[in-house]
Amino acid sequence: MDHPEAGGNGMRRSLTILSVLALGVSAHAADLLVVVGAAGSEEFGKTFENAAEAWEEAGKRGDATVTMIGRGEAAGQDLAQVKAALGGLDPASADPLWIVLIGHGTFDGREAKFNLRGADLAATDLAGMLEPLKRPVAIINTATASSPFIKALSGENRIVITATKSGYEDSYARFGERLAASIDSPEADIDQDGGTSLVEAFLAAAKGVEEFYEKEGRIPTEEALLDDNGDGRGTPADWFRGVRAVKVAKDGAEADGLRAHQWHLVPSAEERRLPPEIRQRRNALEAELFALRGRKAKMEEDDYFRELERIARQLARLYAEAEEGDE
Length: 327
Prior knowledge:
Elements: H1 9-21, E1 31-36, H2 42-61, E2 65-69, H3 78-87, E3 97-102, E4 105-107, E5 112-114, E6 121-122, H4 123-130, E7 137-141, H5 148-153, E8 158-162, H6 175-182, H7 198-216, E9 225-227, E10 240-241, E11 244-245, H8 258-261, H9 269-272, H10 276-295, H11 301-326
Parallel strand pairs: 1-2, 1-3, 3-7, 7-8
Antiparallel strand pairs: 4-5, 5-6, 8-9, 10-11
Helix pairs in contact: 1-11, 2-6, 6-7, 10-11
């Protein structure tokens, strides 16, 4: 059998497969909820505001419905506003919900909290607010001591990102400002598909944090985690090669990263043209591809490439359908 690693037909087939797999991933009309926490100082206040503005602008470019909390004069009412905002959403919608927390956090050994003006937002409280929602949700907590939010919020059809790998990493986290700058940055588009996915922004931000500590000659006091497989553990950026986590997760759980790569706050032009049904079928095939790559080491080479080509052909047919629909 002629494999993609070989020349001739194998190389041409490899290029065909890669061209199909390089096309964009999921896009929907999203809801974006950005919560700016208590700053504590003017310096942090400016940093948090800059990050909030970057998220707001990206949300608008992506045609999301944007709700901002924590920037107005109603200090002390922020927790009530978060509850009201989440309670007012359609719980059964298929559209993704992005929740971005920008600020400081605390952890007392039992409970992690995000600091608001007035009563703080505990991880368990947010879990209760999200319980009625059956829609896809990404919770992005860029605060210090944010890691316990993963265990509290991880689940099916959810993405949870935290700025730290431990609740005891309580020094100021620089991850948030870098993530805000990366969420719609062409430089963060690793696979060059014309849109920056959430996992790509995560990886770019983590790299930016690493470079900061190296430049300053300081020991890192934060390490971001991403969880989107529902196992409640999270994966650091150094487990990834490209947009795929290459280290094996414990207990046979699938690696994190696939779902986060199917989320774009600002979809590419190509992605916007795909009908919702095509996107849904495409995402299912990409999940098959993700699982196949995880089994590669245990498969016969011919079997692996046969399955790879089958999935690639189905993806190609989907895009052909979409093009026919545009005519």
